[in-house]
Every structure is written in C-alpha cells, then in structure tokens.
Write a structure and sequence with these properties.
The N and C termini lie far apart (41 Å). The radius of gyration is 19 Å and the shape is globular. It has one domain: 3-Layer(aba) Sandwich (Rossmann fold). By secondary structure, the chain is α/β, with parallel strands linked by helices. The chain has helices at 15-21, 25-35, 55-66, 82-90, 105-119, 143-170, 192-212, 233-236, 239-247, 257-268; strands spanning 46-50, 70-75, 94-99, 124-127, 174-179, 217-224, 279-282. The chain has a seven-stranded parallel beta sheet, with helices on both faces. The protein is 44% helix and 14% strand.
Length: 288
C-alpha cells in the first residue's frame, strides 16, 4: 500500500514508480489518495521541537499539538518550557519538556536515548533552536563568538538531524523542518556570522533531503524574515534599524510567530508528501 510519505515503507519504492509498475490496485490506491481531501492532521505523530520555550519555537510546538502531535519540547532549561507545556495541555494537547543544550553533543545523545526509550519512534523534527550572541562588524568578532554561534546554529542541528533520521528510518519515514532565515540568502548588516550559519542550514537541508529521500524522510527549511520575538529585539527596539527593515518589506510590517508556524504545519503534514529540499520563504516579500 502507498504510505503517507509517498511510497512503500517496506521496499522504499516511490509511489510514482509503483504506479508505473502496477497497473491495478496500487495505482488505483495512489490515485484515490490524490483525490482525497487534503489532510493536515498529525494524530499519532511524535514531534520534537528545539528552542520551544518562546517565539517561533513555541508557536510551532503549540500548533503541532493542536493538530494532534505528541510534542517533545526542548530547551536548555526545562522550567522555561513549562508555560508552553501548560498552554498545550489547556488546549487538549500532549507535551513534555526536556532540557538539552543543542550545542552539546553529549546532551544530544542523552536526549535521543530518552526519546527512543520512551516513544520508540520519531515522526517530526523541528530544528528551531538558534543563537545570535554578536550584533556588530565581523572584524570585531572573536573565536568564542564564532564557536558559540556555529555550535548552536549548525553543528547541533546537524547531529540532531542525524539522530532523528535514524529513528525515522526505523519506523518508515518522517519529516524534518529546519528553521533558517532570509539572512542565509541575503546576509544582514551587522549579522554576518549568524547569516553564515543560516546559509549553512539551507545547504544542510538540501544535502539531507537528497540523501534521505529514499528512506521516505522529507527535509525542508523555513526562511523567516523579521519576526517579533525575543531574538529580534535588537532590531525591534531600535527605531532607526526597524524603520529601515520595514522599508525593505513590501507588506510593510513584521511577522508574528504564528505566521511561521502555519508553513511548518504544511511541511510536516501529508499535504506536503512530495515536498523535500524546499526552502520556504516567509518574509512578507522582502526577498522578492
């Protein structure tokens, strides 16, 4: 039978090839799937969201739970996640908080040992955690700033994806979304090192998408523009920089985290079963 990720979970055969090689039942089932109502439901899925304590990560976690996913919320401190767990619970969803520094490989190993032991599977991964400890000219950045930014923004997501893909492969497939930035395409002034890491996330997304496609694991990226979060306060609270940024956005406003979450729900749902290696820009037209 055709599975939700677009092929046969046992043979790894893509649905389109199955249609060519099977003239009756499998092809008919695939055609029926295409004619069904588009389904964004995530019931029964296990989802892990890094950087879930606030901002974009919080909005994504709440939305995943709203659509039925069991959410594992990750941040450096578990107590910072409790309000998100409580919000999800109040809406009828399920979530647990797990402390993990995504720049620490030992903590990443422990996180996935826990996920495997408790759930035995992982269906959805959202690599959202990020940092930008330096706002200034690259000529003034030292090695510590470089290491901290790359450890959290690129090294961590790489090894988290590696662990997640192994679990997903064991259960027949899954969906990964990496939160990059439009800065990965067009580096922002005074955010050079951060922008480099986000460009790396875009490249990592495409590389993993090609490698994991035969395993029924889809990998995509979201590229937000200016979003009102704690992370962007250096821009939001500087009138001159904010006014300049808004002039670069055709919609003439910033986004709120919920507007990023909607794109993520599409990418992890069955509605995006033929979408992998894509970089979804959500920026009000800034890169247009």
């Amino acid at each position: 039978m055709v599975n939700a990720f677009g092929g046969d979970p046992e043979s790894g055969q893509p649905a389109a090839k199955m249609c060519r090689e099977n003239e009756n039942s499998e092809c008919i089932n695939h055609k029926e799937m295409l004619m069904d109502k588009i389904d964004f439901a995530l019931d029964g899925k296990v989802a892990l969201v890094t950087g879930a304590s606030r901002g974009i990560g919080e909005a994504i976690a709440v939305s995943l739970a709203d659509y039925g996913a069991q959410c594992i919320l990750v941040s450096r401190k578990a107590d910072a996640l409790q309000k998100v767990v409580d919000e999800i619970s109040s809406r009828g969803g399920k979530a647990e908080a797990v402390a993990c520094h995504v720049g620490d490989l030992d903590q990443i190993n422990a996180l996935f040992a826990r996920v495997k032991d408790r759930y035995g599977r992982l269906d959805i991964l959202i690599n959202n955690a990020g940092t930008n400890p330096y706002f200034g000219e690259m000529l003034g950045a030292d090695e510590g700033i470089w290491d901290k930014t790359f450890d959290v923004n690129l090294k961590g997501p790489f090894f988290i994806t590696q662990h997640a893909a192994r679990l997903m492969n064991d259960s027949g497939g899954g969906a990964i979304v990496n939160v990059s930035s439009i800065n990965g395409v067009k580096p922002a002034l005074l955010q050079g090192i951060y922008s480099m890491t986000k460009a790396g996330i875009i490249s990592m997304t495409k590389a993993f998408a090609k490698e994991l496609a035969p395993k029924n694991i889809r990998v995509n990226a979201i590229l937000p523009g200016l979003v009102d979060t704690h992370f962007s306060q250096a821009i939001m609270n500087n009138e001159m920089i904010y006014d300049y940024a808004i002039k670069m956005i055709p919609m003439a406003r910033h986004a709120v985290p919920r507007e990023i979450a909607g794109a993520v729900i599409y990418l992890v749902s069955d509605a995006a079963s033929f979408t992998t290696g894509a970089c979804f820009v959500v920026d009000g037209g800034a890169l247009a």
